[in-house]
Amino acid sequence: QAYLSYSNIAALTHLARKPGWDITKTLDNVRIWTHEEGAVLSFKVEMQVKVPSHVAFSLLSDFSLRQRWDRHFLTCKVLQVVSEEEKIYHVTSAPTTGHQPRDFVILVSQRQPCRPQGPYTVAVRSVTLRAMPPSPEFCRSEILCAGFQIHRNSSSSCTVCYFNQVTSGVMPYLAANLTGSSKSIEDTALECIKFLE
């Protein structure tokens, strides 16, 4: 478990530091970037939020609140509290056209900044849990690496960056989006800002 937690945080930190991000869209408080490497597509959503960084961190690290702003989360329940900084959740998401509903078993690891200017981190990855085997009513999907980095701008504002390394399991939700025919990434980002503020 210690190794999984460490590799969860390390994978997100590594993804955030990768060179070669291309900006694809700029709105008032939201910028969307993509990064392609072989068959793996990653995206980053950067949001300017008018709340202190520690407040954004406490709201975003509690995944039971996620349904309040992310319509892709249908249900989210805690399966196991591993430690103060680690929880395992079971998430279900609404079906997209032509696909059955999906579910995920995810480890969420949260970390305070380890240096004064460092970001708050909330890292997410799929794990297997014997107590939660795949069920026939859902298509079990995998999150390789996702999560948030929250950077302090001032005592009352911060930059929230959401990252996701996209696998085919998440693709139906994003395919329409990245071609520009749907605005679900933007809409979700704006809902997230509204929720935090």
Automatic annotation (TrEMBL):
<dbReference type="InterPro" id="IPR002913">
    <property type="entry name" value="START_lipid-bd_dom"/>
</dbReference>
<dbReference type="InterPro" id="IPR051213">
    <property type="entry name" value="START_lipid_transfer"/>
</dbReference>
<dbReference type="Pfam" id="PF01852">
    <property type="entry name" value="START"/>
</dbReference>
<dbReference type="InterPro" id="IPR023393">
    <property type="entry name" value="START-like_dom_sf"/>
</dbReference>
<feature type="domain" description="START">
    <location>
        <begin position="16"/>
        <end position="166"/>
    </location>
</feature>
<dbReference type="GO" id="GO:0008289">
    <property type="term" value="F:lipid binding"/>
</dbReference>
<dbReference type="GO" id="GO:0005737">
    <property type="term" value="C:cytoplasm"/>
</dbReference>
<protein>
    <submittedName>
        <fullName>ACO12 thioesterase</fullName>
    </submittedName>
</protein>
